[in-house]
Structures are given as structure tokens and as C-alpha cells.
Design a protein that fits this description.
Layout (H helix, E strand, L loop, with lengths): L14 H13 L4 H13 L15 H8 L4 H23 L4 H12 L1
Helix pairs in contact: 1-2
């Protein structure tokens, strides 16, 4: 199967922002282009249509053993990241979050 051709885009960024991105890229041993591409790729993984996701069951004992190794601060950070990801998904699916959208989200998730 042939590889899909990458799409080339032009990105305009101010000098200060470019400097920040460049320093992050250098710290990871990447070019600016590769770093930006990796950030975009990691962000788009959160926006896969929910119909394509399969349900996964994880035993509570396994989760407990994994989380028992983490510090409270790390768990708080993890919960905050999960909340942000869920908010992004909800905004993509339902648009602006208002009371009607929240009730719709709760109804659909609870099924």
C-alpha cells in the first residue's frame, strides 16, 4: 500500500513564539519542523471520532496498583489532563458548552 503524501502548509509565528518553540525542539533533539509536527500529531490523536473507539475493560486492581506508585501531585496532573481532553472532545462534538450541551453529554456518556 503506498504511503500517503504529507501535506505542506505555511505557518506564520512571531519571533518570541518561534524562539520558545525552537528551544523546546532543541531540548528534544528535533528540528523546529519535526517538533511542531509531533505536537500536532499528538494533539490530533485526541480528536478521533468516538464511533471508532472500542470499549476497553481494565480491572480495578490493576489500576490501583498502577496509581499506587504515583505521587498525589502526579495524579492531580493526570486528572487535570484527562479533564482537558474530555472538554476538547465535548467541544468538538457538541460545540459551545452550555447547560443543554452538558445534559446531552451526560445522557450520552451514561449509556
Amino acid at each position: 500500500m503506498p504511503k500517503k503524501k504529507d501535506r505542506v502548509i505555511t505557518l506564520r509565528i512571531d519571533e518570541d513564539s518561534f524562539g520558545i518553540v525552537e528551544s523546546f525542539a532543541k531540548a528534544k533533539g528535533l528540528s523546529v519542523s519535526s517538533y511542531i509536527n509531533s505536537v500536532i500529531k499528538s494533539q490530533t490523536e485526541y480528536f478521533i471520532p468516538t464511533a471508532s473507539n472500542q470499549k476497553v475493560s481494565i480491572p480495578k486492581s490493576l489500576l490501583y496498583s498502577l496509581f499506587s506508585y504515583a505521587s498525589k501531585e502526579n495524579l492531580v496532573d493526570l486528572a487535570n489532563n484527562w479533564a482537558i481532553e474530555q472538554e476538547h472532545v465535548a467541544r468538538l462534538i457538541w460545540g459551545e458548552i452550555d447547560l443543554h450541551a452538558l445534559l446531552d453529554v451526560i445522557f450520552k456518556i451514561s449509556k
